[in-house]
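It would be a great kindness if you could assist me with a short task in structural biology. The matter concerns a single protein, recorded as an amino acid sequence and a row of backbone structure tokens. Could you please explain, in whatever detail you think fit, how the structure tokens follow from the sequence? Thank you for your consideration; the sequence and its tokens are set out here:
___
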Amino acid sequence: FLGLFVVAASVGLYAVMKLNEFNGATTRMLEAGDRMAEYKERLSDALLSQVLSEQKYVVSRDDARYGHFLAAAKEFETHLDKAAFLADTIGSKEILTAIKNQHVRYKALFEREAVHIKSRKGYNEGWYKAEKEKAVEGAIEELNNLQLYVEEDTKNRTRALAEAGTGALRVAFAMAVLSLVCGIIIASAVTRSITEPLSIMKKKTQEIAEGNFDTTINL
């Protein structure tokens, strides 16, 4: 019966461990997805703030606007570093790297353009505008790709967790069946160990009652 108790306790312990593991993985997955989506929104806002600041600077040539651009760029880089630290898949890291490259190009283009503006010399304003738009559009496209990737990754992880949960349930069920079989075997063995000697004693007692005193009982 002690063996039966150990098996039953093992089934319960295994089920509790797997349930905690499943709940923990689900919580971490959802939190990571929510945080990555939040960083995507913050990156989009910071990028939009940079675009507005640089466009106003090109028109007004106000140094305050240039300062606003640098502050928004710093905010963008901070959020990007946090998102990169959170990323735990090759796909998300590649997308974040692409976003960083586009942002670095956009920032470098505007800073070079700002040098031309401050020098008050003529420069190819149309080229800079087109190249900046390409960099911004590339960053926005990658940000959208990041959102789609996070959503798809969450679905895949949820599916994997569901499959793992099903596997754990099967193992727990098998262990429960094993526990039941062991219980039946143990109970049968214990019952037989009690009833078999009693049956022998009953038979020998009947023999003595019939006058056969030569019989012996070896139990």
